[in-house]
Amino acid sequence: MWCGRTRALLRMSGLWPIGVLGRRPLNCSAASLAGSNSPRCWNCGGLGGPLRGDRFFCPQCRALQPPDPTRDYFSLMDCNRSFRVDTAKLQHRYQQLQRLIHPDFFSQRSQTEKDLSEKHSTLVNDAYETLLAPLSRGLYLLKLCGVEIPEGTDYEVDSQFLMEIMEINEKLAEAQGETAMKEMESIVRAKQKELTDNVSRAFERGDTDLSPGPGRSHMPRSNY
Questions:
Q1: What is the mean pLDDT of the segment spanning 6-18?
Q2: Are 43 and 115 in contact, with CB atoms under 8 Å apart?
């Protein structure tokens, strides 16, 4: 219950490419296709060329292409690979991408493009939700560094911190009225900000060591 409430508190803390509608496949010359290792369009067989930013569509026939499997969430959402994320910019990017690849815009397209738009939209949703919350963002950064902590598990959290959590939990249970609840929310927010700042500094130092000790174990603590 406490974990769910804490996470709930933490969560409080248009471009459309020309030619997408009414597009018509273009013929590609066999000579231009020969001997190239560049990605080819599933629709017209044309060369997609090197990926540049948000090239979701074939430059020749404008057909929606499959998601880039090498692209991580930070790149997709146009964010620096950092624990500090501009959430306003992240939300703007999310809306921009959904205007570009949302399935609603492909209802009259081929089944292949419908399926691809579903994949793109799901990927964008996952990226947005992961990077929006500090906990999932930190866990994803650790995963990119080769360190994984299953969310919802305890990982060598020191006893002093657990005592702090128990004390806050007791105060929460005893809180009566809206004023007391707001006071508890302020305490939780302050603690979360402290942990967030500590995690951010750890990532900036390139410190992904999760062993207990001064300045360590901040990511597991964020689970609380």
A1: 38
A2: no
